[in-house]
Write a structure and sequence with these properties.
The chain has 479 residues and is α+β, with helices and mostly antiparallel strands. It contains seven helices and 23 strands. The protein has two domains: 55 residues, no CATH class; 316 residues, Immunoglobulin-like (Sandwich), CATH 2.60.40. The structure holds copper (II) ion (CU).
Amino acid sequence: MKPAIVATVLWLCTAATVFPDESESKAGTGQDDTQRSPAADPVRSTPFDAAFSEPGLPDSVRYLRQPRRAARPFHWRHPDIDPSPPPPLMGRQMGKVITPNVPPLGYALDGDVKVFTLIAQPVIHKVKERAAGDALILTHLREYMGDTLRDVYPDVELLAWGFNGHSPGPTIECTQGDRIRVILRNELPEPTSVHWHGIELPNAMDGASGQTQSPIPPGGEFVYEFTLYQHGTFLYHSGYNVAKQDFMGLHGFLVVQPREGPEHAVDKDFAIMLEQWSVRPGNPNPKIQGPFNFHTFNGKVAPSIDVLEVAQGERVRIRWGNISMDNHPIHFHGYTWWVTGTEGGPIPRSAQFPGNTVLIGSGQCRDVEFVAWNPGIWRLHCHLLHHVVNDLPDMPLGEMPFGGMFTLVHVQPRDPDEAWSHPDEDGRSVDGRNARRAEEIREREEAADGEREANAERNDGGGTGDRRPTGRAGEEVER
Ligand SMILES: [Cu+2]
């Protein structure tokens, strides 16, 4: 090691002791800001500047020895790009998935290709809206607890990023076998791209900036086009500068419905994204690396999260996606559900498993299904209980109202006067994969067998029926 470098390292160690982090040194010392200004601070001036210009220093060392500077201004929006209004077909429901608090995105047809438009742009994102979902939650709070628990949290608005004016972006819903085209326009102040999380597609369509495509510059456009061979719950999110862009809100659902088959049919199909935001007082931009203090379902904290409304007897699926940096054990009251899918699509029936708390890891998806036999208002929430309250409450921390990852499933009774009974009492099953459906599947399989035999006889053994998409090994894939 050269003497100059040794001297600098020693100097650094001493300097670190003499000039500890500002936030610590200032606390309670009454120290005047001018004393800490860069100009007056020897740590930030000449001896170090000299060390940086030392020839032959590795970049990593040079980086670590940079003088402290004022943070560069963060650009939320591009100075020359006005965010466009939502594209046509925004909010148009073309399928059946309900994404609470998030609009769907419709498509235009170009021949057989479904064409979607996503515009990545700055959005003013309301993590907490006083008016939105308050009604049911607060009404019941008041019914049971009077006015002692009030909605005391302030509204929380962030300068975030999203697609088509929303964060999370609109839900894209397609059918297995569809060919889709997604036109992505970039109205952000920095480059971007979109990665299709979980989709088996050509490498060039993966949206991984720097590996499969050039980042799309501000004002630029990129067209993704691929065929959906799978079905299940998938995500889309930024593929560039991911730690920042995904957390600024650039993510959404891509739900692919099965082409056919009663084994996947439900009456209500919900999708909920798990996210986390780090919100610091006085800073309207979300902080990127935590600590996270606002934990959201589809971008909202309770009580701004829509209640899931279902009717007694309906078959319900909830699709969960986790784009956050924690794993969330999502818990449901009053029911046993079945875990029926992952980010890799449906779990084969024989491997589905029951539960009431499903752990959803970062980057994972989980589908759960149940038959809504049990009427009432049931809690649905993350069981990390610091994720069901919000930070920054405008009150002394006595009793904390629910915030964060908390909502209700409202199962409306068929007959409000009917006495409660457990299905076991009259031999019915609460297995989410109900008997009626099993029967339908059996009938269908028998019919298909009959048809295959008839075809085989007609064609001398050569089947002509539809084929399922083939896997990498050229074998039929069970979807
Ligand atoms: Cu959680």
